[in-house]
Q: What sequence folds into this?
């Protein structure tokens, strides 16, 4: 029988009413429900091609499905008791699968949801061992006993005496006094893996049969959670293991650049540009970089930030980086269209200036009734635009501050993912306001929203946090305060998420839930960099006062 034809069912029995730890199977451990470790392990197996969770609980079923298992039925209450036989649960699952889809597996791999440290290699090895042995009925995982049975006793209450648990005739005299290493090796089933050939269940009315192959697992992998104490130990083990992983990963993997190389250019300090407040507190830390938060108005910025020489060096080293990034994905194109539709509800024609226009992609997305101009500092991007678009000749390779256009030249000024990069956004806004006609629009698009839920939760692991590229972290409130000083009044705001190509609603929510849990458990070190989520990004439309 070839592996690909082999039907290998992973069966996970997970009752809702666990006695010693309430809701044990879905209790969080290291940021995930306990059962998730077992489902993820089964999903990685080379052989397992179906995973069924048999449970009487809707909560367990829902979570199991989130992690990629099937939970197509609820196990009836009368066979879901703490004393219910596993054989009955097996038969119930098999009969259900046979009746509802004519499915009958060749092998059943029973994985215990309480064994989170089990490795997928061990599961695959267990399956291979059983497949190779035609005479065997099943395989069962075991580990060395930590307490030897020769040293076990029962109590004769009547006589008030200890009695050897194993009859004396079955063990050497005085065996209870022997050192552990002198005793014969004894193994205990470790409640991790059972594999059985399906016919054994039907013919022998047993989930093991009599010919059982042993699979010895080590102590760590065997760790099985049954008591509140086990849970505490597992939390500690998990924290240790994950801490090592994150340490190895280091911050540089989160942002794949060597930002420390630029830390010597950190010298620019700012008071709050929104309220001029002088007091602030630490908001996030990333290597040598710090973000601070104004005590007075809550505005967030990198302080100290890179000086001009540092920024020039950084952008030189990464020349064309944004451009290549922009060019490579279709996702961005879809995002341009979302942003275009939003602004075109306000204005559909006239003179537009796109500040930091990259290769001209957003200008291209705007309708042709616009007379299009752009500013871009990256020469490679400018060349691309000039080659590919008719309006390319109108793209100037200079900064906004040096742009030579007369006041009141434009009906629309766009900054798409730009304002957070500028070392002096206040002067930039002054210039934007001057360049606009009265009644003209200023469109700030695809800019991070520092008031978003994820910004607060993730801080330096928020996917919009970058201590060199993103200097100032605005919200609709703070940016609007700044704009108002320049006569630009907020006309509309939007926080695109669901409709964007970056949203993966189920996964995004799952990860946020995990992050919340980690934060509550003081396990921030384990949090991954955040994904797309509600409110992360904002599109703001401002209108210049006057007519
Ligand atoms: Zn402030």
A:
């Amino acid at each position: 029988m070839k592996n690909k034809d082999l039907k290998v069912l992973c069966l996970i029995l997970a009752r809702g009413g666990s006695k010693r730890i309430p809701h044990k199977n879905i209790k969080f451990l290291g940021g995930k429900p306990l059962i998730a470790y077992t489902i993820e392990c089964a999903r990685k197996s080379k052989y397992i091609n179906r995973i069924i969770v048999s449970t009487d609980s809707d909560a367990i079923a829902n979570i199991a499905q989130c992690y990629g298992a099937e939970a197509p039925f609820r196990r009836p209450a009368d066979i879901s008791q703490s004393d219910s036989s596993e054989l009955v649960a097996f038969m119930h699952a098999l009969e259900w699968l046979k009746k509802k889809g004519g499915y009958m597996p060749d092998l059943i791999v029973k994985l215990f949801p309480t064994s989170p440290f089990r490795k997928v290699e061990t599961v695959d090895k267990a399956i291979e061992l059983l497949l190779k042995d035609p005479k065997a009925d099943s395989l069962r995982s075991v580990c060395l006993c930590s307490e030897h049975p020769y040293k076990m006793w029962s109590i004769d209450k009547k006589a008030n005496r200890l009695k050897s648990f194993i009859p004396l005739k079955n063990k050497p005299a005085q065996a209870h006094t022997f050192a552990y290493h002198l005793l014969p090796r004894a193994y205990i089933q470790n409640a991790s893996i059972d594999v059985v050939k399906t016919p054994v269940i039907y013919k022998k009315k047993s989930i093991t049969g009599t010919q059982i192959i042993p699979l010895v697992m080590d102590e760590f992998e065997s760790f099985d959670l049954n008591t509140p104490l086990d849970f505490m130990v597992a939390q500690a083990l998990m924290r240790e293991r994950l801490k090592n992983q994150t340490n190895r990963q280091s911050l540089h993997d989160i942002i794949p650049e060597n930002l420390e190389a630029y830390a010597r250019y950190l010298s620019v300090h700012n008071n709050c540009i929104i309220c001029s407040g002088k007091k602030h507190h630490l908001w996030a830390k990333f290597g040598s970089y710090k973000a601070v938060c104004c005590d007075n108005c809550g505005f967030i910025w990198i302080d100290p930030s890179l000086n001009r020489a540092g920024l020039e060096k950084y952008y030189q080293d990464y020349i064309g980086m944004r451009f290549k990034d922009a060019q490579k994905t279709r996702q961005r194109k879809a995002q341009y269209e979302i942003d275009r539709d939003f602004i075109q509800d306000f204005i559909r024609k006239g003179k537009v200036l796109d500040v930091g226009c990259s290769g001209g992609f957003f200008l291209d997305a705007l309708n042709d009734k616009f007379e299009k101009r752009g500013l871009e500092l990256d020469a490679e991007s400018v060349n691309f635009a000039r080659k590919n678009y008719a309006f390319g000749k109108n793209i100037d390779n200079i900064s906004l501050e040096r742009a030579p256009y007369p006041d009141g030249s434009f009906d629309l000024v766009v900054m798409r993912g730009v304002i957070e990069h500028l070392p002096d956004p206040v002067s930039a806004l002054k210039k934007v306001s001057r360049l606009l006609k009265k009644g003209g629009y200023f469109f700030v698009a695809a800019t991070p929203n520092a008031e978003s839920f994820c910004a607060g939760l993730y801080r330096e692991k928020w996917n919009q946090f970058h201590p060199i590229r993103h200097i100032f972290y605005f919200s609709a409130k703070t940016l609007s305060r700044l704009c108002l000083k320049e006569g630009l009044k907020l006309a509309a705001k939007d926080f695109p998420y669901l409709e964007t190509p970056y949203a993966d609603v189920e996964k995004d929510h799952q990860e946020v839930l995990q992050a919340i849990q980690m934060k509550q458990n003081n396990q921030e070190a384990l949090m991954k960099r955040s994904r797309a989520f509600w409110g992360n990004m904002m599109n703001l439309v401002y209108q210049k006062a006057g007519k």
About this structure: Residues 329-544 form a domain with the Rossmann fold fold (CATH 3.40.50.150).
